[in-house]
Amino acid sequence: MKKIVGIRNIIIILLCITIISLGIGFSYLSVKLESLKDTKEDFNISFVEVITSSKIQGGEFVPALTYDIMNYGKTIKLKANMYAPRDELSVKLVIKNQGTIPGEIISIVERPDYTDNDEDKKKIYPISITHNKVDGKVLNPGEEIELNIVMVFSSKEVSIEQDFIYELNIVASTPMSQ
User: Fold this and answer.
1) Are residues 12 and 87 in the same domain?
2) Same domain, residue pair 21 and 94
3) What pTM value is reported for the model?
4) What is the pLDDT of residues 53-110, one digit of tens each?
5) 65-100 burial string, b = 16+ CB within 10 Å, else e?
6) Burial class (CB in 10 A: 0-12, 13-18, 19+), 167
7) Which helix H or strand E contains 118, and what residues bound it?
8) Range of the domain at 25
């Protein structure tokens, strides 16, 4: 009889230890799950800053540039005024990954496309626009890249004031390797 009571007490003690262990394990997993729930993956590649690098005056008036960052930083609208041959504007657009996951710049969509479309180029002639390519660049969280734009009024033309709007849009996604 004493042997049966001893075995029964051992079983009860083991069950109590098991219940306490399960409670501790459940508490630990709850805390871990709560911390994982609070971490969000955020995707946000956008224009964050416009820096006018240089303004070269070819005539009586200084070329001017105004800008507006719109659409949560996905679109930037530049309005340029150029007045005479040899006018030049250089602009740096800072693109930053403000998210928590890496992102890839698929392309920069230009409206109108003054760099590649011949019909659009004729609309602002004698001004030409060039910029570096950032297509395919992968930005890690917090990383930034510069899109350098140069607008030049051809020195072979006569002075006529040119005002135009140049809109750039970012198309980005998460890299396929993820």
Assistant:
1) no
2) no
3) 0.75
4) 889 888 888 999 999 999 999 999 999 999 889 999 999 999 999 988 999 999 999 9
5) bebebeeebbbbbbebbbbbbbbbbbbebebbbbbe
6) middle
7) helix 118-123
8) 1-39
